[in-house]
Task: structure prediction
Amino acid sequence: MPEARLLVMDVLRAGLNDGPGVRTTVFTKGCPLKCRWCHNPESQRPLPELSFDAERCAFCGRCEETCDQGVHRVEAGTHRLERRLCLACGRCASDCPTDALKLVGRWWRPEEIVSLALRDRRYYERSGGGLTISGGEPMAQFEALRETLRLAKREGLHTCLDTCGHAPLADYLDVAPWVDLFLWDVKATGEAHARLTGVDDKRIERNLRALYASGARIRLRCPLVPGLNDSDAHLARLADLARTMPELDGLDIMPFHALGRDKAARVGMTQQGLPTESAGPADISGWLATLADLGCRDATVG
Ligand code: SF4
Ligand code: SF4
Result:
């Protein structure tokens, strides 16, 4: 059987936002959801791809010379890309003098990931941190994910798995022994979930409740976008999840920030129908107050 490898979009060392303490976070590439507000849109497609940041381009034309697929057309202060011709070989990105071009997505062996994470072990020990596998959706690369988590636990690392919940329940139960904390996204409710993410939320909630019942430690992470998924019905559901699963590790609201649009453009995607501004203090205090009124007083801002 070929060795399982994980397609990784990026690795963040010494991060503080993806679980307890100081963490190494591995962002996998490929996701079954298409959230309209995705703040890592370059993680959605399950293949390596070229990212182009027009702001950084010096129009030197080196990429046009390097690429024999005819992807780049650089002339008179313009740079057009014919993305459908790109083979994602990465040669133009290696040659670009300004880092305007990057190849997003590299295959990692599970041992490579754990070996990188172990470099920061002393920070984890001081802070209660460890390794987080995020995405994209890590469960979409199940075999390599499971091996990565198994090796990490063998090394005594604390592990978090950040997931959208849209994977077979049997797979969640399978990896649970190697996951210290699940970071479980709750993105919208009912019809809005299907409309805003492209998938139904019934399976996700069934998985969540079954995993909770199995004794797994779970923290809810709830992206909130003003006017899009912050309806009273959704906030009431969040409060209901917290009330009916009292042993949850916690519930974080994740206020929308408007960085995804530029990142989407760099990989030839568009994000439409989103607020132009990030969520502000008034949005956040309003959400927290509503949740508190509904009985969920311990929600925090992630
Ligand atoms: S990644 Fe390779 S094929 Fe794609 S544009 Fe660059 S050189 Fe051409
Ligand atoms: S090599 Fe880089 S800086 Fe030069 S034209 Fe291509 S993208 Fe722009």
